[in-house]
């Protein structure tokens, strides 16, 4: 195998595939990227056995077609450090011979592993498919992924639950994530072809990789899936992932319907006040107490060692008409949610100990549920 | 030897002159002499062959016979009297092995209620000595008698000697005790003189006594660590004691320095009455080996019910569960998992334990199953429910209601279907 390619092109392709490679790997071949050169194109593949990322790179001058595998992280580091505009030549004589990389007066020999050892992920049949504008996919991910659980016991919470359903008469594609303390539920209009899809749980790592790839494009992203696998076609990159084999809990019944105490508060002022007040707390959970009265909100936090802090928000940023209420939340949980809200945060409380509903007053398609904590 | 070495008589509980072989007051030969006798305050107390001693107390005709307390033919030895121990029988030994060693032993099924009552009696006697009583198991505790001299008008050693006699008279069992400068040394010292022992180890002699002992003597040095230490050339505690903290860290990782400190007999743990238990568990040995999930689930469920009650009685909950299995060839497997929310409800404990069990069922035959709660959490923080499991408080309430019914109308009054045994 021998080919020459523009440094910038190769770097971008390597960046796409190498982040799926696990840093701490017990299986050596999984640290490698598979390079396959044929007529005018180069195909790069990396996998951790759960996710496989394939990039098809055009604009490659292939002198001699062939395939080999080389350490992904090292190759990426080297190419990253080559000067901009450099032409990179990769040359592999075959067999155990090293992969020689030349760029200008720089050259290096990289140890290779046999192509036969590189695991291939069979995706099987993916009977369901739809296309989603990149922006919509980003919204679905951004507004839910902070709530993904890292707890191993309830492994079925370690991802985003994506499914087709109905919401107030409209057919929607809905993403849900929860760690038991908070729940995020976001929906987009149901794209064509998604109606019959099964509900699937997309693992956290896949979510993060897809989000990175979706950053670079404004095009539509093609999604194909079965009960066990999902594939995203994002530009020249194809990411296939296993799904979490489990049952996502019936989240619908924990979303309170009758919460009637409504607090509206401007996001910027509220989020900043939460951050300032919570800074005093030495506990890991950083609890913040909200004492709410007519058009008045007092945020407070205290710590046994460091004292206490409070901040008042008045009617210029707060709207509240119901009976007075005290309730506590983890500061980070509040900020994770307000980070997704543009201008005005709407809280709907039942009382000081029941789950609370939070929405973006301007965007009802995203809904959050937050468990209070004792303060 | 200094002329005025302190001494006391264990039978009349008085100070005795150090230079006589017998007590001038009562003629007893049970004298204890030690340079630090009247300054040491930490005592480790261990009942001698506790269950077996209680059985002998209640059935004096067994006094001269080897007695083993343990469950069934396939169970293990819970306690063996000292007569039975002369044949090599030890606690935790499988019963068939014990009976091979000591065929004429009288085997008695454990009657826990009796032992618990006796243990409670002993605990009360201990608590009359000092508030600093930390029970370590049903028949073992560590006491600190610092500052009790004025109260008892006697140094701790004398108070303890009286206590030992009180236990013999009032409860009818004997104890062994170790008096030393700290908890670690007290525990090791108690082992030195059994049964009915009274051993003393002073601060000035601890290092010299420890140095030639095998590393396995230290609590916490199990077979695996012992192997590792020996592979590194450390067979005696003296070798470990010689390591400075840096070197110990380099060789044995972050636990190294404390290991070396303990090898020198250092222990800064206070006697803490509130640190009663670190884990609570229940286990059972089967009549015949079990290998399938379905057959193992039944005993597991009963253990979860038992564990739930034990937790409730102590106002504790499980923040995690530990599953213990012993294979037919006596290999032990333990598996643990954190619970998302602490719980003491049998159903919740069972669901977690079952998921651990399911991974272990691979055709292997097991002879024992156990479940433990570890780490522990306060019961008040348990079963609060969250967005994923909002029904937890209702499960807790339901179980409590069932327990109330059982307390009033008997065990069989109400049960979950899972708990019903096939007739």
Give an overview in words:
The complex is a heterodimer of chains A (375) and B (423). Chain A is built from 6 helices and 26 strands. With 375 residues, chain A is α+β, with helices and mostly antiparallel strands. Chain A has a 9-stranded antiparallel β-sheet. In chain A, helix 1 packs antiparallel against helix 2 and helix 3 crosses helix 4. The radius of gyration of chain A is 25 Å and the shape is elongated. In chain B, the strands form 4 sheets. Chain B has a 5-stranded mixed β-sheet. Chain B contains 15 helices and 16 strands. The N and C termini of chain B lie far apart (72 Å). In chain B, helix 11 (245-252) crosses helix 12 (256-263) and helix 13 runs antiparallel to helix 14. Helix content of chain B is 37%, strand content 21%. Chain B has 423 residues and is α+β, with helices and mostly antiparallel strands.
Key features of this structure:
heterodimer, A: 375 residues, alpha+beta, 9-stranded antiparallel β-sheet, 8-stranded antiparallel β-sheet, 6 helices, B: 423 residues, 5-stranded mixed β-sheet, 5-stranded antiparallel β-sheet, 15 helices, globular
Shape of chain A: elongated
Radius of gyration of chain B: 24 Å
Name the beta content range of chain B. 15-25%
Order of strands, main sheet of chain B, comes to 8-9-4-10-11
How many helix segments of chain A?
A: 6
> What kind of assembly state do the chains in view correspond to?
heterodimer
Shape descriptor of chain B: globular
The neighbouring-strand order within the major sheet of chain A is 14-11-12-13-26-25-24-18-22
- SS content category of chain B: alpha+beta
Name the chain pair with the biggest interface and residue counts per chain: A-B, 18 and 11 residues
